[in-house]
């Protein structure tokens, strides 16, 4: 068997030009595959991170029925026991919020919005608004002033600047119209244009006063983990401890099933990409190996006449294909990882497509990431396709009659 490997290695380099054509084709396919995988990983990561930040963390605790009907009537009031439970989970950040629909008006315009009453220090762990400020300052840490934080998009729509006043109106828990004036403390901008158009932030006490909540009452407890991989075990652990008759716990996946479906389709699309990339390469390999076989018919005849079995002929050709595939994958991977490492260090600037990316909730600068499970599956598929492409040529080479092959001209 060692002799077959040595012969196969030498056969690869008997015609270096043809071998390098095949190696280059495989390397180009691998380079494209890894580059596309890294790019899609960056988009996916940015979309998931935006969904987690902008939609209230990895997990949300709310009263039963709130997620189906986010009405001010649906609220929680047992804050002390809830916080005691959450403090038992390591590396878990949480922030109480009061969220309700309303309308914001300026002297010139009005717009429907979602009003979020937040505790600024703890909410930084859910959505770091201080990092997204474009003008002015974030909400006061003491959360006492009648200040409001709006997006630069909404500010343009209302035609207001930091320091100016706007009015919020909403129905309170008694279904009475409540309104209050707020001074714009600052403007922010997130990765999602749609979020910026319809969401604003006030302090938690101001939100409670406006909607008619008691001091301990909240709409939602937003939870954020350090790593998304911990989502399922943490959710299972908390679900076993909370009273599910009064409170429900939903993950960002359950609150956003459309995005989950998009991610599943994207994962499936990776394998379609591999198939499309390597279909053309497979035909190139088949054509090249058929040429190799007809050039070496005399050689195969001599080998079989000296006792080489048909199975060993097939193994030799498979080993040749394996060597070419390994070199092609190595070359393609080296160039792909060099490019991806540069993008990881410096980021890939897509600001030219900011409008389209904003609609998907993707940052204008993204950082590629690889799912090693997908990389492994991709390489397995590449090996399988390369070896399957040699199946017919290898079978044909092993079917020659020794006498006819030796006398072949």
Walkthrough of the structure:
With 409 residues, the protein is of the alpha+beta class. The protein folds into two domains: 2-51 and 259-406, no CATH class; 56-254, no CATH class. Helices cover 53% and strands 19% of the residues. It is built from 16 helices and twelve strands. β6 (165-171) and β7 form a beta hairpin. α2 (16-54) packs antiparallel against α10 and α12 runs antiparallel to α14. The mean pLDDT is 86.
Summarize the model shown.
The protein has 409 residues and is of the alpha+beta class. The chain has helices spanning 2-12, 16-54, 79-86, 120-123, 152-158, 193-198, 204-211, 231-239, 252-255, 257-295, 297-305, 310-346, 354-360, 372-389, 391-397, 402-406, and strands at 59-63, 92-105, 110-118, 133-136, 147-151, 165-171, 177-188, 199-203, 220-225, 247-251, 348-349, 365-366. Helix 2 (16-54) runs antiparallel to helix 10, helix 2 packs antiparallel against helix 14 (372-389) and helix 10 (257-295) runs parallel beside helix 14 (372-389).
